Amino acid sequence: MSVTTVICAGVITMDTIALVDRYPAEDERIRAEQIIRAIGGPAAVSAIALARLGISVGVIGTIGEDNDGKEILAHFKREGVNTEGISITTAPTAGSVIVASKEHSARAISTRQPPVQATPSPIAKALVAAADWVHVDHVGINLLPALNIKRGGNAKISFDAGYEVTGFDVSQVDLFAPNDKSLLSRNPNLEIAAALKHEFELSNSLIVATEGGKGSVAYSAETGFISAPSFKVEIVSTLGAGDVFHGALLAQLIEKHPLNIALLRANAVAALSCRGLDGSSAIPTTAELNSFMSGVK
Q1: Kind and range of the H or E run holding 19
Q2: Model confidence over 213-270: pLDDT tens digits?
Q3: 3: confidence class by pLDDT, cuts 50, 70, 90
Q4: Taking the complete model, does pTM exceed 0.85, yes or no?
Q5: Apex CA 246: angle with CA 136 and CA 124, to 5°?
Q6: Of the N and C termini of the chain, which has fewer Cβ atoms inside 10 Å?
Q7: What is the H or E stretch that residue 157 is in?
Q8: CA-to-CA distance for 29 and 187, rounded, in angstroms?
Q9: Parallel, antiparallel, or unpaired for β 13-20 and 62-64?
């Protein structure tokens, strides 16, 4: 078993993505500019971002023993992501068919939901016990009891809180990272800065929220409220950009960058990932990120 710095736990999918000029009308056939297959899922994409940025990382989740599952394992191997903690079942691997429209700068998604998550294996539990961070998505958060992990243990917990987190107790995690819509749904009477502060006061956790094309914001004991702008790049698709941001943010914190710099660099990684149609193919390495940042005024 290899020791890893971060374990990402949650959804792993194999997606088919088509780029079109416009959405087709009913019963209409149109030509796609690109059609690709790529790994998806918040935890999976975050793991690839961490690996690209030089962090030792493994992933925990459930896939099928089908060809999609085999393709996922091969892709993770190429990226240098540890797959020893993945569970393989007879259920089909989760996946989506995604149509990205250039006209609307939007996407339409039809998805096969993730299989029932298998009980984490002894290897998965050992990987978590040796890690510095465990990063979970909306599925992975429910695996924490089975992984024998809670806040205050050996590993810190980061939660990509993009789905159904209205009643979640933020004090369970060290880093709570919703998008702005999820954050405001929890705090309907507050502006975003006040909502961040309120979540921090309830939990004493690091609170970070993404704001799409505007950038990201955070609140911590050391900094109070801070924000970091986004970057303009030639966008092919924003698919997975939030998942990339979460992996990149963890990488920058592990590398001991101050929070304001970590946010800025994570924003840059997420922006650069949008040069690709899928969520992961255009994620930069640390060298590429540093080169990009050296040209930022």
Answers
A1: strand 13-20
A2: 899 999 999 999 999 999 999 988 889 999 999 999 999 999 999 999 999 999 999 9
A3: low
A4: yes
A5: 30
A6: C
A7: strand 156-161
A8: 44
A9: unpaired
Dihedral sign for Cα atoms in the order 69, 72, 78, 81: negative
CB atoms within 10 A of CB 129: 15
Helices vs strands, H then E, count in the chain: 8, 14
Q: How far is CA 131 from CA 11, 56, 126, in A?
A: 19, 10, 9
Distance of CA 292 to the CA centre of its chain: 21
Distance CA 167, CA 246 (A): 21
Distance of alpha carbon 282 from alpha carbon 241, whole angstroms: 10
In the numeric block, the tokens 């590993």 are attached to 155
Q: How many CB atoms are closer than 10 A to CB 166? A: 8
Please, are residues 143 and 119 in contact by the beta-carbon 8 Å criterion? no
User: What span, in angstroms and rounded, lies between the C-alpha atoms of 134 and 157?
Assistant: 5
CATH number of 6-22+34-294, picked from 1.20.1600.10, 3.40.50.300, 3.40.1190.20, 3.40.120.10: 3.40.1190.20
In the numeric block, which tokens belong to residue 47? 């793991």
β 206-210/175-178 pair status: parallel
pLDDT digits over 176-210, tens only? 999 999 999 999 999 999 999 999 999 999 999 99
User: What is the rounded distance in angstroms from the CA atom of residue 250 to the CA atom of residue 50?
Assistant: 8
Three-class SS state of 189 = coil
- Which residue type is seen at 61? G
**d(C-alpha 260, C-alpha 237), whole Å:** 26
Paired residues of 100 in beta bridges = 19, 107
Q: Which tokens is 57 given? A: 């990382």
- Nearest residue to 82 (alpha-carbon basis) of 115, 38, 49, 47: 47
Report d(CA 187, CA 236) in Å as an integer.
Answer: 33
